[in-house]
Amino acid sequence: MSTDVMPEPARSNLEVRGLSAYYGRRLAVRDISITFASKNVTALIGPSGAGKSTLLRCLNRVHEMQDGARVEGEVLLDGENIYDATAHRVIVRRRIGMVFQQPNAFPTMSVLDNVVAGLALSGRLPGGRKGQLEVAERALRNAALWDEVKDKLDRSGVALSGGQQQRLCIARALAVEPEVLLMDEPTSALDPIATVQIEELVTKLAQHYTIVIVTHNMQQAARVSDYTAFMLGNEDRVGELVEVGQTDQIFSRPSDKRTEDYITGRFG
Fold first, then answer.
1. How far apart are CA 191 and CA 96, in angstroms?
2. What is the CATH number of the domain that holds 255?
3. Both ends of the chain: CA-CA distance in Å?
4. Is residue 40 part of a domain?
């Protein structure tokens, strides 16, 4: 198993050291060490059961929300372990935002309220509608959605199309001004046109955020990511990191035969 550190750029604000994740007594992910390059996109690829989503959920302490789930090892954000006893989970999840596989717009909330929901939860919601509109417009513009919803801010978020709802969820994550954005197969439930819009948005956002994306789509990983990490479940169905490197190197000259076999479709 490789525990490579990404070769460049040198700056990074998210690092995993010796991380293992459990669901009750079952070990799901074992001894992962990886550094995520700042303001770059890293794709996590591998077959089902390789532990990709579990690893992703460990990066902002969502994993431990499930009963019996726990983590060993460290996840360092700007050099500080987010699992330290003094770390506040709400603050961690504000600094490390997450977008899930299925668009999860809040059905009882308007588009505007969906965008600012995270700020409300953390007690940072601006007072008055004007301040909230300013925050929402900035987040919606950054999520490439403002022009499509600026006249629909008081409508229900679930009235939007699937692709729009996913960008709404991205806007909600961006509104709290995170440093890192995690995406768990964000286009798997979307049509091809919406998928292209999300991929273009990911490329744009990487200029400002460190992005980690789980995807089963090899072409998508090749299109949007700067770095790719390949994960694989062993004979006990425990996820491990096989190798990580620059995306063009992983797809054209992988150092591990298992990576080559997966990318070329021999298994998975």
1. 27
2. 3.40.50.300
3. 18
4. yes
